[in-house]
Structure formats: C-alpha cells, structure tokens
Amino acid sequence: MPRRQFIADLQKAQEGTLPLSIINLQQGEDDGQFDFDFVGDFGAEFPEPVKVTAMIADVSEYPTAHQYMIFCGDDAPRQIGAALQNVRGTDCKTVYELIDIVSANLTKLSPDQDGDLQMEDSQQYDEEPLEDEDDDDGDIYDSDHEAFDFGARQHTTPYAQASPGAKLKPSDRIFRARIRSDLMAAKSAGFKVGHLGGLMDGFNCFVTISIRMSKLGISEAAMQAWQVTPTDYLTLLIQYPNGYKSNEELQGFDSLRLAPNIGFRVCAGKKYKPTLEEAIKAFTIVKKHERDSITTTELPGPEDEADESSVRETFISRPLNSLLQERLVPIVRYRSSGMDWRGAEDWYSEVASKGATAGGDSVPDKFFEPELVHDALPDLLKADHYGAPAVLHHSFPLLAMQFLLRHFVRCTDFCLVCHRQLNTELEAIKPYVCDQPLCLYQYMTLGFGPSIEHEILAQPYVVDLLVSFCYTSAASRKLREFPDGLALMVPPVDPSVYNVIDPYAGSGRRGRNPAQPEKKDPKLKSESDLPTYEVGFDRERLEILFFDKPDTCPVRRGNWIVVKVAGTLDGEELHCRVAETTYYPSIKIDEPVLLRQPSTITDQQVPQAAGQGLAPPAAKTITPATTPVWAPASFQCYEQDFEQLDKNAKCLAVCKLLDTLPNVKAMQEFLAKRHPADLKHWVERISPAALSLLRWIIASNRACIMQVDGDSNTGSRPQERVFGMKGYIEFRFAMGAPDKQTRFLAAVRKTATRLSLTWPTIFAWHGSPLQNWHMIIREGLNFKNVDHGRAFGDGVYHAKDAQTSTGYSGRNFYGGGSANQGVWPHSVLKISSALALNELVNAPAEFQSSNPYFVVQHLDWIQTRYLFVQCTPDDESLKNDNEKKPTNAYPQDPYLTPRGMSDAIVIPASAITSGRAAKETGRTGKIQGQSPMKKMKGHGGFSDPINLDGDDDGDSVATDAEDLDILFEEEPEPEPEPVRQDNQEVSTRPRGVETDFVPGELDFSKLPLMPVPTYAVSGTTKRLLKELQNLQKVQDATPLADLGWYMDTEKVENVYQWIVELHSFHAIDNKLPLVAGMKKQGIKSIVLEIRFNGSYPFTPPYVRVIRPRFLSFAQGGGGHIVMGGAMCMELLTNTGWSSVSSMESVLMQIRLAIASDPPAKLDVNTRGDYGTGEAADGYIRACNTHGWTVPPGFKEMAYGGGAGGAGGGY
C-alpha cells in the first residue's frame, strides 16, 4: 500500500544516518507530512535550527507519481525560504532522497570560515557565456532548465562563476586539485576526458570519459552486430547532481544516499562528449510513473539514425546503466580489501543472494584468486587502476570506465540481467542471459533484447533464416534450449498428427539405433486433458455459438483459440483471436489462420501433393465460402503451459506456433505502414505466444549474420558476392566472442612469422545437417558432439570442395523424410541446405589431419566468414544465376584455393582483413594502437592486434578548450609577464624535452607557395577559424618537443592556406635516420604547406612538404613522402578521410607517419625546395596506385584557380 510504503520509508530514514546538517526527523501532523531541522553552521548566520516541512499532496501516489511541497516557518532566514522555493528534481523521490536533496541545497548557504556568505553577483548574468563547440547550445535552457535546478540563485546555474568578492575556502583549492588529479589519471590511462556544468564550483555537473571503439580490440563483425562503427566513441556519462564526489566520499555513502549523488549513462557517438542538452536528455526518465525506469531515456536507440553531432544509446546501454548504478560503488568498496574485479563482483553477488557478511576476515579465499585475462586483449582493457602500485587516491571516473569496458567489450561473458559471469565455454558474438528462467523473462520483458521490428525491416532474409533453422531443428526434435521462463501459453499439440521428422526413421544410418520414445510424465496435461467446447461455427460471419452454454463465457476478448470443424480434412485447424464476447453465447473471432497437418510422416510415407488429398503443412488466411450456418465444430484455448511439456512436446509446440506466423515479407509490409512499427499491434494475425517465440529466436541468436543478397536496409553500401557459388544465397557470417578476431589474428601473425608464410590463411568449407544450424549459430563451431563420426581424429572438419560439404548439409542426412518435412511453411527462402566458408590458419601440416579433410583442432585457428544456403525462393531476384568475379579479389594460396559449386572460389578483398593484417610490417600497424601523445614521447610498443581503418585518433575530434584548461594546475598567483627581447618569442609554454627548434625563425617570403586561394565558403571559414583557435591553445599549453609541430597563427593571412613546421623527431625515436640527417645538415624543421578547399571538412586537406627534400621510396626512403613532396596517406584522401577529424590529430598523424617504418630519409644530393606542380602530380599518382579517391576540386586547389572544391571533379 502507498501509505504503508511512505511510513516504512520514513521510519527507515529516522533509524539510519541522516544527511549532513539534518536532525530531528519527525512525522508531521497531517497525512503525508514530515518535519526536520536544518542546523547549518553554528558559527555565524544560522545560530538556531531552521524547521523545514515537506508534504505529499496525495499519499496514494507514493512512491511512483507523487509530488512534494517544501516550506519553512515565517521566522526562518530569508535565504532559506528562497532556497527551498528553488529546489528542483524532488518528484517521485523517497523520503530520504528528498531530505538529501534539501540538505545539499541548504548546505551551500553556510558561510565559510571568514563568515562570508557566497551570494549571487548582480553582474554575473552580464558576463559572456563560455564558448561551446555547438553554436546552438545557448538556447537549450528554455526547456531543460529544471534538470539543472535553474533559478534565481547563483549556485544552481551550471555555468556560474564565483563572485569576485567571494573568498575561496581553504578546501576549495584542494577540492579542485582532486578533480584535476582524478581526471588526469583517466587521461593518462588513454581516455578522452570532458565535463559539462559547474564541476569546479561544486554544483550539478557531468563528467565524460570516452574511448574510440577501434581501440577496444572488437572485431569488425562484432561492431556490425553491436551497431557501432570504429570511429564511434564509447562514452561514460557520470552525473554529480550535488557536486563532484571523490572515490572516498562515495565509499562512505549507503545505498540510499548514492542515487541522489551520482548517476551513470552509457552512450555512443561521433564526438567524445555530448552537448549539455544531450546530457540532460540522457538522464530524463521517459516512464515517469515507474521507479525502475531509470534506464529508459530520451536518447535515440542503437538502431535509430542519429546525426553525426549527437549521441545515442548502445545496444546494451540499459543493462549497463542499471549495473553501474546499483553495483559499481559496492564492488569498488570490496576491491579495497584486495580482490580483483571478478572477485569483488562474485562477492557482491554472494552477499546479495545469501546475505553474507561483508567483513574482510569472513571472505573466502576463492574470491581473492586472480582472474586470467587473454594476452591478446589490448593493454587498455587489461589495465587496472586499483591494482596500480603507489596510488594514494584512486580516480573514481577512471575506475568506472575500466569497469564499463570490462562489461562492454566482454559483454558475452556476462548475463545481461543478473550480470553474473557465465561459467561456460560457449563463445558468442552477441550477449545473452544465463540459464535462469527469471533472467530470460526479464531480458525479454524489460526491453534488454534487440528490436525484432528493426531486424525484420532491415534484414528480412536473416529473420527468415533464423526462423527456418529453428523450425527444422524443432521438427527434428534437436532443440536443446527452449524459451522457458516466458510464461508461454500454447495451443494443444498432438505428436501423432504433425509435421515432424523422425531423425532415426528408416535405415538408421551409420549404425544408429531407432530412437526410443520419451517416457511421458503422467502429471503433464495432454491435448485431451484440456477443456474442449462443442460449438457451432459460421464461416461467413466468423461467429461461434455455444450449444451448451456454460454459466460464464470461457474465453475473453484477445484470447487465442484452435477451432476444428466437423467434416473437414483430418488435422485441419483454424487458429484465431477472440474479437468480441459481448453477445455471449455468440462470440466473434478475427480472420483465422488455416493449418493443414498431414499424418505422421516416415520415410515410407510421403505426403501427397496439393490437390491429391493430403497437402504439405501450409498456413494461409481462409477465404469465406458457402458453408452451412452453425456447422458443428469444437475449439480449445491456448491454455497449455509450455514449461510443463516434455522435450518432444515442446518441439511440436514451437513448430505449431511458427506455423501460425506470416512470412517475413508480410511482416515487413505491416511494419512499413505503421508508426511506431511494432508487431504487438498486429493482434488479429499474430498471437502473443508466437510473437514471444519470434522474439526469443532473434534475441537468442548470438552470431552476426548480415545479408549480402536481397533487399537489405541496413544502410551500408552494397557488398560484392563471392564468386563460385552460383544458385546459392550468401550471408556474411561471424561467430565467437568479440575478441575471437583478435585471437585469430594473433594466431595468424604468430604462425605466419614462424613458418614464413606467403599466404597467411586459407579457406575451406564446413557442412552440417540443417537441423544443427540453430545451435551452431548460438554455440559456435566445436567438436563436442559426434554427428558424422571422427574417422580422422578430433577437430572441426573442413572440405576443400563445396560438393563434399553439401553431402553433410541437407535435412535428410540421416535417411528418411520427404522434401517438405521440417520446412517452415511460410519461409520465403525455402532453405534445403547450408554450409559455411571458414578462414583457417595456413598450417595444414599442423592440423589433426589434412587429407582428405582439414581437421582443425585449435578453435582459435578458425574464423567463420560466409554462410551459403541452397534455396528455392519464389522471388526470382534471389536466384543468383548470373555471377561475376569481384573487381578486387583477395589473394589466395593457388594450391589450396577451395572450389565452390560452380567454380573456384574468388573472395572480394574488402570482406577479409586477416591476411592484410598479418602482412603489415609496421607502416600502418605501428601508427595504431596507442594514443598520439604516448607515441610522441616514445613510450610503449605498438602491439594492438586489431587492424581497423581509423584505429588511431586521426579521425578524432578536437578536445574542447575548457576540457584542456581544467587539467592544468592553478597558479598560486599571477606572475609578471616576461620582457620580450629582440627575436625572442614571449611564451608561457611549459618546459618539456630539450629541443634545438626555435619558433619564429622561418622566413615566409622565401617559400615557394601555391597561389593564394580566392574562394571562401562561410561554413568552411568558420570551421577553419575554430581549428586555428584550438591549435593555438594546444600549442600554448604543450611543451615544444612533446607537441612536435609549430604554427605561427599570427602569420596566417588566408585561413585556407597554412604553413606548419614539424620538428623534434628525437622525442619519438632518437635513432631515426631523420634525426641524424637533420642534425648533420643543420635543419631544425620540416616545412609543410596545407591547403583547404571550399568543401572542408567534408573533403581532406592537401598536405605537401616544401623543404627539405627526401629520398623517394624507390631510392630507399619512406615516411609516406612521395616523389614531389606530397604526403601518401589514405587519411588525406576521400577514401580514408572523416569529416570529424581535427587538424590537431591530422598533424600528429603526419608527424608519426614520417617517423614510421620505413622512416623518411633526407636527400642530401638534391638542393632546393619542392615545387607546387610536382607535389600535386605525385599526390595524384599515389592515389591512382593505391585505388584511393582524389577529392573533388583537387586540381583547382593544388594547381591554382577555380573554385577549390565548390564543384566539379578533380
């Protein structure tokens, strides 16, 4: 009861520790009223306690939809009354949460040690607002001001500045220093750090910690399955509603005080932090009448199309938000006793489930055992801030991000509901739940699973494939996992009349014995045990009349029933929904679905074709015909509890429910016409049980399957087909854990190096009976089960010829059955067999066997790539009878090239990354895998095994100036400006590594430059001015040698033309030939000219070297500098460019590329500067050689004249 809950919460708050400055909590005189005293600081303004009263207008709405009125007496100080009037965010809060919010607001009114009260400054709102990256951020306060408690008082404004007359407390400097220390720890660990709101003033604020997806060691297939891209940022958004709290402060809070003081949201986007408006939206609860709706926000979903500048939820944001909010702080608290992450999580679960004592002495030793982590994971994921030595104060934002990465990257290792680590060897590319029925129920009902509507709209044939696999497996009675826990009520099933395959009927192939019938539990209900109602049925009017009228109507509107009409074919059923019961004993039904079932099928009993008596199972909407009024009939309700059925009956129930579903094209058409698109609204056609089963089939798929053929609406560009599989439908196919690609690539590299392989990988076929594929795509390839014998040893069997694998791939491998047995009647594809094309490590001599089959015993040596299915579709467009070879074929070992059904296999190079990754010698690989700052300082190695385009911060956005400023220490007092001497630059830049470079010595007048551009575009000019401003701030704040580039922004006369000097290459590697060469020649810097066209940032800048000259690659040089001085980098072409790239990151990438292997070498025999024409010619040659796209308008920009990209080709 609401009132009882209110009284219980009030008593709990009275018995516990009250928030700061709150005493004497008492129940009030009226219902829903309570009083408490605020004592403030007894040293000054508030010598007497101030009585505060809170009242709930309607206690019956507590604790889900209630509102508070808060006030104090007339004799209370004026500022107390004003502060209470401006308290926001109190709706639907518990008693304790309300008191904590009031305490946080009133505590800010307490005077400091000098007796100064921080009052609002009358000039405060006349100050210029802080500049933000987005121009429209200034107008967001109109609708969302309440989320930040905006009001008349200064302390509730997120961007408020301290009043000039107010004195800082001694603790203020310590407070800000701790914030800087915590954020610097996160930045030093390789993350981008940002903030929004009044962080340094102790007000409502947000802290963001983010990292690029490409740095997380996630395979490309996993990124596709997770609906993210390598250039996306994974961002942890932490809200501090009552000011920043350190790790130590949070550990001191009990569970009641945590929620009002900290909140978490996990999101993804193209920028490293959201705007203030987006941050507020992320914490805006949509379902305001449900207290457990904390994870439902106003952010776009993972499948929604979002703007480049916006953030969205990830595919598992909701369970991760819940995990962080409920468990992170207690788990970190347990870590202080010496446990690692796994031990602390397991101990938390132990305490929560069994009520164990959390004392350090009582914790069993097993919780202190270290967790084994795979060596192939990037260092970023293996790092542990809590385990780092000599750390006095731990950064809570860094701990939170490391915990998030653990559960995001390794999400398939954990249950999405209870978050326990799964004790299974199963490897999957998508996360799921544990085997607890309650977890499955919550997963499906709380919205943690994928959107089946999105899958049907985007990839209908993948849905058809998944349903067909499940149907065949169920019809063969091969299902091992069932949708238990979903409270499914299914129609009655009769094994004697259903479309099932007896897997051991007939000859019992390979010596198998006939299957023994499963013993029936006498407690389970059979079809005859369920109530049967004798009625009359009018086909034309879709009405049912009860002849023997029961006292009450046995059905309700919305129930699903199964009608059998006397005189029709044996086994014919009408499945329909009850539409109206108002005129009982007559009820109306919706248009029914007709199911015709043949008799029991064996290999000797083949059903007759349609029109010859029995027909294969088919489901269709009946056509009204002339029939007798009130034809004798009977019906049964969907009242069979699915969980009470035995295994065989469950398989039959799954088949019957799937028989009632429409085909995927019909579902796609229905969803395309409805807004919002949701199958639950098609109530007259799809039963709730069938819809839940469909959701389970799609949600439990743990592989990544992407359409190559057909009408895929995923938004990705069309993919080239594999040549050699004429007549087969093709899917991109990946299985295994998200780091499976990492482990596979590690094995490829290791083996290729050890055996000096020219061809690091080979391809081969794996076939399996159709009924096995439902479990294969959930469990991955393994050799636990013996289906076809193991004549050549243990391992996963592969064939070199597709014809061999197809012999193991059909429905009828075991003997018996007809062409239509076990086929989903409504399948658009009508699948008859399936086989996978896998990529293997090219070491046949080390396989378990290599003749006549490849038997691979190491699962990390196998990576699935394609799934091919043989179909007889009605849609002619799906019959791939015309083949053409890919324009850019992937090179294969000519002696081990597999053969397809029609020709030798030719694979498009764009689909395979492993061979390219194994052959990388460092020119690309050494630039990837570390933050640019660490590489500039020469720290660490380049061991990231993931080779994804845009892996480094080359595509990164610039760090906002306010996020950089907050990381620098406060000066105790301003120092006098240095006196500028002749030819000496005034600089407050911090000192770093020693360098011989002296800024300001370059004579611009002697440089051979391209003609000054005459074009200008408003948006481009504004973007370039912002880039210049950011570069100047970074340059002023970073030591010269650590930065490695210099630009005199005061000499930039045209924002479309820059001169930049690169220097201090010894800070990267003192042994570079370039370092010795420049020192010997007395050269202090490399001079670059950078030109932008009118379409920047949607096209890349053009970068060329002016001086000195370098050896070309053919002459033994390198450093990505081609003949003519242009930079040969995919990043600087339309192929590799990203519009979110910042010039700061571009300059870092160029400097690192010049120093990469093979490094650049000076040409000491040729004098003079590079000319403008030869550089442009060299750039175009490089693009043509590598197949890169030249930006439009390049010739006009590089050779002079024209519109510089405003139109036309290059």
TrEMBL record:
Domain UBC core: from-to ranges: 1019-1199
Acidic residues bias (residue ranges): 113-141
Database matches in SUPFAM superfamilies: ADP-ribosylation, UBC-like
InterPro entries: ARTD_PARP, Poly(ADP-ribose)pol_cat_dom, UBC, UBQ-conjugating_enzyme/RWD
Region (Disordered): 110-142, 504-530, 876-897, 915-942, 969-997
Domain of life (superkingdom): Eukaryota
Biased composition (Basic and acidic residues): 517-528, 876-886
Alphabetized Pfam families for the sequence: PARP
UniProt KW Transmembrane helix keyword: no
GO molecular function terms attached to this record: NAD+ poly-ADP-ribosyltransferase activity; nucleotidyltransferase activity
Protein name as catalogued: UBC core domain-containing protein
